[in-house]
Amino acid sequence: MAEVSLNQLHKSYDGKTNVVDGIDLTISDGEFVVLVGPSGCGKSTTLRMVAGLEDITDGTITIAGRVVNSVPPKDRDIAMVFQSYALYPHMTVYKNMAFGLKLRKLPSDEINRRVQDAAQKLSITHLLDRKPKALSGGQRQRVALGRAIVRNPACFLFDEPLSNLDAKLRAQTRAELKQLHHDLKTTSIYVTHDQEEAMTLGSRVVVMSGGHIQQAGTPLEVYTNPSNRFVAGFIGMPPMNFIDGVISDTGAGPVFEGGDVRLPIAEGLAAAVKKVANQKVVLGLRPEHFSLHAGESPHHQASVELMVKVVEPLGAMMDVYAELPNGQRVLLRTDAQPLEVDRSTTFYIAMEKAHLFEPGEYGRNLGQSIRTPEPTAVSV
Amino acid sequence: MSTIPKTKSKGFDLNMLVVYVLLVVFAAITLVPFVYLLFSAFKSTESFFSFVLWPIQPGTIEDPSPWYAVDWTGFTLDNWKTLFLEAGILRATINSFFISSMTAILATLFSAMGGYALAKYCFKGREAATWVVLGSLAIPFALLIAPGYQLLYWLGLLDTYTGLILPGVAPAFGVYLFRQAFISSLPDALIEAARIDGCGDVRIFFQIALPMVRPMVGAFLLITYLATWNNFISPQIVIQSADKLPLSVFVAQLRGPYGTSWGMIMAGTLVAVTPVLVLFLMLQRDFIAGLTAGAVKG
Amino acid sequence: MAMSKAAARQYPAWVPYFFLLPFLGIFLIFIAYPMLLSATMAFQQNAGPGVSEPVGLKNFSWMVQDPAFWIAVKNTTIFAAASVFIQLPAALGLALLLNSNRIKARGLWRMIFFAPVLVGLPFVAVLASLIFEKNTGLLNVTLHALFGFDKEFPWLQEFVMPALIVAAFWMYVGFNMIYFLAALQNVNKDLLEAAQVDGANAWQRFRNVTIPAIKPVAAFVVLLSLIGSFQLFELPYLMLNESAGPENRGLTLVMYLYQQGFDRGDLGYASAVGWVLAVALFAFAIVQSAISRRSEADA
User: Fold this and answer.
1) What is this model's ipTM?
2) CB-side exposure of A28: number of CA atoms within 13 Å?
3) Fewer beta carbons below 10 Å: N end or C end of chain C?
């Protein structure tokens, strides 16, 4: 059990561009932190630096109060679960799990006890004599977990451990991982490109892009209060709709004009947008903040006429692909109900949940400071 | 495996008949010399010159003996007696086993080590070393015969097993094959997992890396073993003492300038050929996989 | 997942060199050094390994003036040509026969055809020296019995090159077949079926799908065959009872090198012959890679 702390961490392969560009992050004892981001964002490199599999270009990594920059992987008291599981194919499951303990010269009855315990926890006791080749993907995944657990390390490192499983198994294993962490309470760093996995697993989610941390916070924080347009677009499925436009004040309050629609800015945002009046902004609307009924909630006040193009029923809900008057496509998710295609339909928008961003890929969220008076874990 | 409709899969098929006839003829041509070798090794000098394959009982001109009337008195074990008791083929056989085993084991070990370094480590000079390996694939053996002899003379290694074995234990060909094998069948994650498990580099090589390329290890052992066993020119040049000769040179020398027993030479050839033939036919799958690995990529 | 540039903490810096050391050591002493040595020896005349004297370019001028050298060049070229133009097409043909998935016991056939190469050159040579014997040899006796062929046909006296070519054919055709068969088995089945759906007949499929697919392997086998042919030594040397045969009819370049270096003891001259051979082989390799690169660019 230990705190892991990254301090101004940099990584460069060619000496010019930084793949990881100044990461500051402290993972407290027992925390489950998920690094999430698109491929090439530096999340895996960061994890591999913690593991000792990559050299640190600049900055420090501290595990349990000890700077480990020049400590070889085996002496860092960490265990890692790889995307490919990296099980030794010529060893049985038992030997795979016992290998690290044997190398650490543990007494054999202690090794046996630990392997049996872990196998029981993961219900793979019946597989101990098999070779990895004879196992299914899900079983291999458990063995890889088991190999990490038996070591009883200060910190678990997970490198996309579920991405080789099919969707159903992934969801199931996700839940088991969460349970396991609840039981063991070992500090964990988990890397994934799947935002859903990040949201469901992490006690804290760290969204990365371009070698930087874009936002770190609880899953709900990053969802409801994205720090910038990148985070807003990356977290949430289906993704947030973005409409380019300007803020103008008609006297009756600030109004967003863009995509050939006019939408009133909600009260909470009004103060923030004063500074950007008549400037270009980006309006962010999540699909579920559209509705077909005005009275459904007190919020769905603003309305907009959209041309419905495609309807995808999902059971209780449905996804609607529609066009703004200027032809831009937006995606909406509403309760399932009959809806005709190629017909202009009125939708109601919960404008008080809308976000306004500065233009650009990483445009700042103009309303964030208003909505989160005390940004808890943003810059740990 | 194929969805091409088999129009004539049942019944008479002229094409297939032609194919099989060709194959049988080819196979017969291939196998007859083996049969010849086998019979000759057990024939007395007299029946060797009178009959090509097996000796037939004498008949009359009007009533010649049929081919199946085998004359068992034409067979003899004398060739074998001379070979083992007088010529000393046992010693040559042991020499061959020793030289081939040592060469094969060391060449495989060193090739695997070199290939592993080139495939899985980053270090200063890796590019250069890779080019050296690729470049030396193009060096013909013939170029090294004369200077190699000169060098062994200077080193005092002529007429020693060291001089025969050492130059062949780090073939660039092997380093190249193992480099390819490690790149294609040893994932980096496995090495990293072992590192985190607390494995040192030498142990990773032997316990994790080598088992991952086991087919290549087998194939390369076999290829090197066979090549060394059948090598004539190196021992012919390097070895002078009769008691150090391997079978290749030993058998060739059975044919002295003054009339030797053909049967004995054939028996000697049989002794030389049989162990490898049996070993390799048993392990041919591995062997062939290794041979074609360099040429045919997945 | 590429290797990190300087993961110095993962392992000590000497580790990769440790793994490379045996190869590098042996290479430097027994390959690189002799190669350099032979570059100087080519300009020397030796009387055994102990005595040498610089002679400049004379080794090469002696070589071009020596009729035996040209016989060796001619014989070696004939042998190489026969390997490439007779033996390799036959190997491909054999591979095609075996490639059909309707052939029963393919493994057994393959094993039979592959067996001769396992016998090894020196032993094949000894065996062949008996088989090609004039009166009693297996070949003449069989041909006489089957076709009334001349029983006294002097293979090893006058028709040495044909005998060598036949013996090498017997030994290597199955070996080369293995490469072609492996290549044929790797031809994309979908492509063949697509061609069939497109209406291509068997010949057109072979010409337009199979041939392009096995081209790289064919180029490799040709090069291998040339390298082997140009270094031919054991087969004629032992078939002809440790000689070059009557009137040097079985003399090859490496045998010439061997005679000069070890029978005459002039290692310097032998080195010069070695360089001529090496340059020829380098030239083949360069031409081959140029051709295969060009056909890759075409593809």
Assistant:
1) 0.89
2) 4
3) C
